[in-house]
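Thanks for the sequence, V.! I ran Pyrophosphate--fructose 6-phosphate 1-phosphotransferase right away. Repeating your input here for the record:
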Amino acid sequence: MMKNAIVAQSGGPTTAINASLAGVIKGCLESHEIDVLYGALNGVEGLMDERLVNLTDIFDHNEENLNVLKLTPAMYLGSCRRKLKDVDQDSSEYDIIINIFRKYHIHYFFYIGGNDSMDTVGKMSRYVKEHQMDVKVIGIPKTIDNDLVVTDHTPGFGSAARYVAASVLEMAHDTYIYNTKSVLIAEIMGRDAGWLTAASVLARNSYSRAPHLIYLPEHPFSKEQFIEDIKAQFKQREHIVIAVSEGLRDVEGHYISAETAAVDAFGHATLSGTGKCLEGLVAEKFGCKVRSVEINVLQRCAAHMASATDIEESWQLGLKGVALALEGKSGEMSIVCRISDEPYQVIYDGADVQQIANAEKKIPTAWINEAGNDVTEEMVRYLRPLIHGSVAVPEQDSMPHYLFLGEAL
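Predicted structure:
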């Protein structure tokens, strides 16, 4: 009897998610228990539509393709934002998936994604267990938001943090050249957890203290105090660089940039631009030069700024996911556990996905200063190792060379 596997990717892309995919592929190719590894295009949607590719054919005996895949941004297999229905209310989606598993002799299912993807892992692992099917379901983490619980940090975050910090430093250089008062506001991804915005602190060095103010969604935001903070900064310097999370909320819990009650497929509020909102406020109150910059998709796809630590850990977490499945584990997510900061050391393990799905890791209160406009040294110690090291992205014609599924086929 053949024992095959399927892997899929879901949610928002990262610079490092394909490194985890490469780890899964490597683990399966080296396994003596897995005959064929399929990839489902566009997550569980592609799985249900039976849009599969044979990854064993593409990558077996092709180490070069695998190495390029590790450094390719975004998602090689494509993505989706599909939340499976509650099986007690409607099992039709699960029945379709199970029929696909049976047709292709699937005994291992690997799903790479963030919080909502781990919800899918939890639901699928329960369903196959209740139906006494020999299918191991394993989650492999990713998210630049770094908001998954249990694991010390998530693949993709370190590279995004490195990009954010470098961008803030470069924008500070751009700001400092003019002999006039100015405020630059950098809006950084982070709807409910401010890890990426906090990472902007790594831009500070011996000659620049930018960002001079940092505001996170974990601390209630006051526009009045924001103005006072800027006034205090202007007493010390002519140019102010401010880092803000897109998900800043007021003391009542309302997003300061939410103009409507519209929500996306997962019930997340639709935001209209925190940076622009605050830019107008600063212009009105101070009449100085003010600019807001939204660091948007660049922070999650800038492979040229990838953290070597992030890429290696993402690869290892993919390998660990396969190892967990081959050990007979199911309903688990591969995790990274930090042993020490200096020297930086980690180990890889597995954890019950039911403890992870639909939970959210916020920044500890002790890592935010009392005024709510900066982070502490504990935060810096946590962040610093995650951005270590650069990677050598392969090139063709002096441009980055990445792997694209259509070309590989």
